[in-house]
Design goal:
The chain is of the alpha/beta class and 210 residues long. The protein is built from 7 helices and 7 strands; from the N terminus they run αββαβαβαβαββαα. The protein is 38% helix and 16% strand. The chain has a 7-stranded mixed beta sheet with strand order 1-7-6-2-5-3-4.
């Protein structure tokens, strides 16, 4: 796969990072753990649990020189203001309720160009349970692209005057599943692996070993 660096940040993406930086250092404090694991070259996939509209910003902030291309649900484009922001940041819009081959091709193009793809496998914001209800789309993209999968865990909803921790984990192994072939069964196996990884990781994080 290409290791070409993606294009420079789009203006709305840069604006979002500037505002996000101010927020996480003032009214929405976030402490990051192991951000060195995000400083990678070449294509990769960031996956993260989803509790707040701030989550994409929190994920993107530690990545200084590269832009993260996020997947976002189609419903976000229903509001004219959100649509402008979503498209201005070059987010990939996906129809969660149908087989969206256009979005799949866009994801694969990001990987081929050496970029970073950001996915929230839960599909929408969840406030109870973490990575318990997952969609197989993220696993399918990971197996097809063969890109490293970097897990990120945000331990609570990001909101004013509450402290949040953001943990970055080691890549989730996928080579054995890729060797078996990319199909529904291996995608489901990877989805279950992601679910189990987060369940164990959250316990360790709560014990201070995250």
């Amino acid at each position: 796969m290409s290791e070409a660096q993606p294009k420079k940040h789009y203006p709305w993406y840069t604006v979002a990072k500037i505002l996000g930086t101010i927020a996480v250092h003032t009214i929405c404090p976030v402490t990051y753990r192991h951000t060195e694991r995000l400083r990678r070259e070449g294509p990769c996939i960031f996956i993260c649990n989803h509790q707040s509209w701030m989550d994409p910003v929190v994920v993107a902030l530690p990545v200084k020189k590269r832009q993260v291309t996020f997947l976002g649900k189609k419903e976000l484009t229903g509001n004219p203001i959100l649509r402008t922001l979503v498209l201005g940041m070059r987010m990939i819009v996906v129809d969660r309720h149908n087989s969206d081959m256009e979005a799949m091709r866009a994801c694969m193009r990001v990987i081929r160009e050496g970029g970073i793809l950001g996915i929230f496998p839960e599909g929408t914001r969840h406030h109870r349970g973490v990575m318990e209800e997952l969609e197989n789309g993220a696993s399918l993209i990971a197996l097809r692209s063969k890109a490293p999968v970097i897990p990120i865990y945000i331990d609570r909803e990001v909101k004013p005057f509450h402290h949040t921790n953001c943990y970055v984990g080691e890549p989730i192994p996928t080579d054995d599943l890729i060797a078996q072939g990319v199909n529904r069964e291996t995608s489901e196996q990877l989805t279950e692996r992601i679910r189990a990884y987060y369940a164990d990781w959250i316990l360790r994080a709560k014990a201070g070993n995250g």
